[in-house]
């Protein structure tokens, strides 16, 4: 409901997803296999420091969150370098001390003996979550006596994907630790090579040697952007639908995918909304959780007085304190400063009437992370030294049964992305930001 | 004694080493600290298959044996690929079966369920051996109460070394598993940055920040070739001598270094020689060990009738069954076929009189390993398909006390190098051979 109406109209991609979701999950008698499947999320909640040492959520990613594997390796390297050289290199100690003060100010303890780079368990925890889903599928659907090969996990990837190493790390861990085979395929190739059995709902994949294997889990590392659906006749959308209709677990299911929309993030921040996801015993956790939310304002039909006040503030000289964000995943489409001010002014009329075009956006309080010294590398060479800002991503895995019972819910590692403060654009794959590691202090 | 005379005269590099060795270790009252140090070998014994399934020793490397780290990773990769795909890819099964038959012929079992790529423990075992040496040094010489930083292990490397990743793997494992810091330096830089305390024999290294650290173990990944000693005034030789005279353990000590000479290998193969290294209880092991030796013939003053008969054979049309090998480490200087025949003929006169120039060589039975199918890669791309031959290297670590007591003696992993059979030259770093992995069958 949050997404129907304004967002779906203004953003055709989200609209298409929502339409399929409603057809499959909200229509009596339809989507029997999809409804019966487990739900599985590999989620990444992104945070920035704000007002020095406060963590504020930037967004929640529910599809194709990347860099879990590479970031684990980077943290291992940084942990090694700090631990190995902090004793004998005065420069490193000073460098870390300056950054500690920049974040913690007077709260920083002089005792740094417990400070350090944490270990990210992502390459253990994410495959472990996948194996929970796979094992549940096997015990539910696969008879061990019929001699057929075990099902595979399907990684849906982009054609010409360049971030393959990060994905291969998960694939290799799945085999080495859980003996679960992985097959990679694009949505385009899946159009001819994937089939969902009409009787059982089993999803099967045609391999290169002509044999076919059942799929227990479909892990999407593609499918989050319109460019992942290039087919003139909607081939990729048909593949997506075919997958969704199967009994295989989808990571994410369309519902989980839609839950990552900025609009949902904004709606969850409304007073009273978070409470319904916690039991009576857990209500005391809500204020702490809500304190990690930045100011989030609707620009849709449901915009309240508070939302409009924020818009007014933003077009009255305070544009620097806001970000205008579209629903679309993948970054790089945000409005800041003058651009934000102009975009809002174009779409506000009369007594703070907001045009329909704004419905696909949310307005968010801009975060001001403390600047820290950094030396950034590109392709093994020093790119430069300067002030930087960072964004922390925290992975988690969650599995729920068809009845909605949570059967697995675990923290699953982190990544940190760092860029020079004078660079507006973000993104590691696009070359603006680098993978880095947190250094925890007290 | 084996090396003095012929070899030392004909090969100035070995001569120089031997001269220093005798000065330091064989002179009463000299080399007090060197003599008192533990001896440590990271050895690699190289083998080829011969007459199908017989393992014959090619040589024993006692200095700078490389690729322990990279080969472990390659074996892990090959193990993964075979285990993951052998079930579903018929081509892989056929490929391995053809090679199994090429080596084992009729001895090959039809049951391949126990076949596979072994795991190389080199990155655990070699650092573990180093830590034994380091810990013995610390408990012998370092008081824990004086507050000074722990000693470091010095890796002596070539200027402009390109095989650094392999070395860094050992360095990182030493820190991660044993918290032992490593410092890298060339013999050239060591001339000004290393000092041996005249009173205590402690070897110390000057770090970049001006501080100095004691060295427990010097691990040579350079120093085995004349090109590692370029200084016009013998700077590198002086560094080597300074290191040798210290109380730090050397890997290898000059004695261990010299023990890797081909001449020693040949002398050990003489009847009755191997026996003296085994106790009475162990004498039954000798024939099995000797059966791994190929035919080895002296061309020095000690050449016996059997040696001369081999030379005669080689210059009478059987040159294809021999290799002529110089003492020098590093490969690429061997004579085969017509070149071997010509070299021998030039230096044989009258009734099989051998000229002094031949003393630096040994004549060895040529090995004929079975040819196996291979697909070789270079820089991630397929270089070609074809028949190949392989050489197996087995690492071992050995620590002995100043009195000669063996306190540590362990197998420490393997590497396999593979090249196309039609390529005469060898060497991974030189680009002719590739790192590969054994596939054990029964």
TrEMBL record, chains A, B:
GO molecular function: ATP binding; glutathione binding; glutathione synthase activity; metal ion binding
InterPro entries in the cross-refs: Glutathione_synthase, Glutathione_synthase_a-hlx, Glutathione_synthase_C_euk, Glutathione_synthase_N_euk, GSH-S_sub-bd_sf, GSH_synth_subst-bd, PreATP-grasp_dom_sf
Top enzyme class: ligase
Positions of Mg(2+) binding: 329
Pathway connected to this protein: Sulfur metabolism; glutathione biosynthesis; glutathione from L-cysteine and L-glutamate: step 2/2
GO CC entries: cytosol
Positions contributing to ATP binding: 262, 325-334, 336, 391, 419, 425
Keywords (A to Z) from UniProt: ATP-binding, Glutathione biosynthesis, Ligase, Magnesium, Metal-binding, Nucleotide-binding
Cofactor: Mg(2+)
Residue intervals of the Glutathione synthase substrate-binding domain: 152-259
Keyword Membrane: no
Name by which UniProt lists this protein: glutathione synthase
């Amino acid at each position: 409901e949050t997404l129907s109406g304004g967002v779906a109209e203004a953003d055709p991609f989200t609209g298409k997803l929502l339409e399929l979701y409603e057809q499959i999950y909200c229509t009596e008698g339809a989507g029997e296999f999809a409804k019966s499947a487990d739900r599985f999320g590999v989620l990444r909640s992104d945070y920035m420091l704000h007002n020095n040492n406060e963590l504020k959520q930037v967004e929640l990613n529910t599809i194709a969150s990347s860099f879990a594997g590479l970031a684990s390796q980077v943290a291992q390297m940084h942990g090694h370098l700090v631990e190995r050289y902090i004793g004998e290199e005065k420069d490193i100690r000073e460098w870390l001390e300056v950054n500690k003060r920049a974040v913690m100010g007077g709260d920083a303890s002089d005792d740094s003996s417990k400070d350090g780079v944490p270990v990210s368990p992502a390459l253990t925890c994410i495959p472990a979550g996948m194996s929970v889903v796979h094992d549940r599928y096997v015990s539910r659907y696969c008879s061990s006596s019929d001699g057929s090969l075990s099902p595979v996990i399907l990684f849906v990837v982009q054609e010409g994907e360049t971030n393959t190493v990060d994905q291969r790390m998960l694939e290799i861990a799945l085999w080495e630790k859980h003996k679960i085979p992985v097959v990679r395929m694009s949505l385009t190739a899946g159009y001819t090579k994937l089939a969902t059995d009409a009787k059982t709902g089993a999803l099967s994949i045609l391999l290169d040697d002509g044999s076919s294997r059942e799929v227990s889990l479909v892990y999407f590392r593609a499918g989050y952007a319109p460019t992942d659906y290039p087919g003139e006749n909607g081939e990729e959308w048909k593949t997506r639908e075919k997958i969704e209709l199967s009994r295989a677990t989808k990571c994410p299911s369309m519902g989980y995918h839609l839950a990552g929309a900025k609009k949902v993030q904004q709606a969850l921040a409304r007073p009273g909304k978070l409470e319904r996801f916690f039991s009576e015993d857990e209500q005391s956790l809500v204020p702490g959780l809500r304190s990690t939310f930045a100011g989030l304002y609707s620009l849709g039909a449901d915009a309240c007085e508070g939302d409009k006040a924020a818009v007014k503030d933003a077009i009255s000289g305070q544009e620097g304190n806001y970000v205008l964000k579209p629903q679309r995943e993948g970054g790089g489409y945000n409005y800041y400063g003058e651009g934000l001010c102009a975009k809002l002014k174009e779409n506000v009329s009369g007594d703070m009437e907001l045009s329909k075009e704004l419905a696909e956006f949310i307005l968010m309080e801009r975060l001001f992370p403390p600047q820290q010294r950094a030396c950034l590398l590109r392709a093994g060479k020093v790119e430069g030294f300067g002030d930087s800002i960072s964004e922390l991503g925290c992975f988690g895995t969650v599995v729920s049964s068809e009845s909605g019972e949570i059967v697995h819910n675990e923290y699953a590692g982190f990544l940190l992305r760092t860029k020079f403060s004078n660079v507006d654009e973000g993104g590691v794959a696009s070359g603006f930001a680098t993978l880095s590691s947190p250094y925890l202090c007290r």
